[in-house]
Specification:
The protein is mainly beta and 75 residues long. It is built from no helices and six strands. The protein has one domain. The chain is 0% helix and 63% strand. A six-stranded antiparallel β-sheet has the order 3-2-1-6-5-4, with no helix packed on it. β5 and β6 form a beta hairpin.
């Protein structure tokens, strides 16, 4: 069963001044074939706001909030 871990969070601001907290998550899957029981395989990463909105990466510093269509820049 995969588990999701928070990797980081940062602030991003829209042109309107509206501020969002963006959280980066990553899935980890337990490798049952490994001799070490704590071995994990990294899975997919995703971005979301602290309000639960989906986030699309445009470039390293620019993102789009899917539900609102807003373009935000890392603060």
């Amino acid at each position: 069963m995969p588990r999701e871990v928070e990797l980081s969070r940062f602030k991003a601001v829209a042109e309107t001044g509206r501020e969002y907290t963006i959280i980066e998550y990553q899935d980890y899957i337990m490798d049952r074939n490994a001799a070490e029981l704590t071995a994990n395989i990294q899975g997919m990463k995703r971005l979301a706001t602290d309000r639960g909105y989906h986030v699309h990466t445009i470039d390293k510093y620019t993102f789009q909030i899917y539900e609102t269509g807003e373009i935000v820049k890392r603060a």
